[in-house]
Amino acid sequence: MLRLFLSVSAVYAVGVPLSLLVNILLARWMPVEEFGKFSFTIAFATILSLPVGGGLALLLTREVAKTRQSGEWQRYGRLVTTASLWIVAASCALAACVLGIARLTAGESDLATGLALALVPGLAFVSFGEGIAKGFGRPSFGEALRQLIPPTLLLLGAASLRFAGRLDSDSALIAQFAGLCAATIVALSYAFRQPPRDKLRLALVSLDEFRSLSAAFLSFAMITGLGLLISQFATLTLGFLGNEAEVAYLKVAERGSQLVALPLTFVNAILGPKIVQAHMEGNRSELVRLSRSAARLALAAALPIAAILLIWGRPIIGLTFGPEFVDASFLPMAVLCLAQLFFVALGAPALFLAMTGHERENLISRALGFVVLAACVLVFAADYGALGAAIGVAIGLVVIKLFAAAILFRRLRFFSGPV
Length: 419
What we know:
The chain is an all-alpha fold. The protein is 86% helix and 0% strand. The two termini are 18 Å apart.
């Protein structure tokens, strides 16, 4: 596990600073309101992509891992072909529905809505490639699709647009679209070149298999969807309240606090196939070992990150995003850092539930937690802006992890966490 952890960490060691650099430069190059509009549209596009690719990463990780174990390459061909066609067809149907609703309700759709819809298939194909790579035990490649390719092209595009004096939220979204297109090409190339050429057959899954996969996809999509809603609900709430400056302050706070959660993200990226293998072999002791090792490794890496941000957070924000963000973003970041530290300490109960066939229980825990999070954000955000939204998110994160840990103990009879 340590070797894979280090390989994924290496990708994030490049990807996270790159993502931070992109956000820092966009925040400095654009007015606060334009940066807030860009952040809101990205969040909106991510939510729109849920019915298209929300469940693909988890579903393909599990199914490809099973196929790899059994050597059923014909089934693998059916999986990737059906998933690819699903993304194209579902993206087109979603665009037609959203644009139709926009025309009926508002008379016309703005450019931001069209750009958000254009990002949907790219986001879905990134999830597709991530799931395939992780199923083959290549989590670092799967993370690279998301962490390196889109932000690199966004950075290059934004720099070129600023040099030409044409950088705004819409043009930055077009640069993001170009990055997702490049990631899509890489993902498809990787997926169709993995199995032996003489054993790969491109075909659609059977009707019975489609029904089974659809049920799992729906559960995984709802799990992923709730995860995205949990991560984006505060941003969307502030955006719908019309305070784009508060959106920008919250995004800066989230960027800092997300560093605390990164070690657990590294661990989750490599755990999936290992959990599937241990579960298929009926090896409960291995599941317990994986859970404890993952939590200890993630917590050991998260503690110093949290300490640095809590002690030197103000000068860090000032040096990176700019002095105008310091007072409004530090306290929200501190609140979120503490919540993320607790989140990391309890390990990965949700992933263990998902990879062992208990995705519905995982869905229930997230749904209950999201209700708490949404209620708290709505109560606090209207009066306290970014700080209130951060408090609501922090409460929700703690409740979500406690629910998942309790359900894991009920189903698999062990506690997640370092002990």
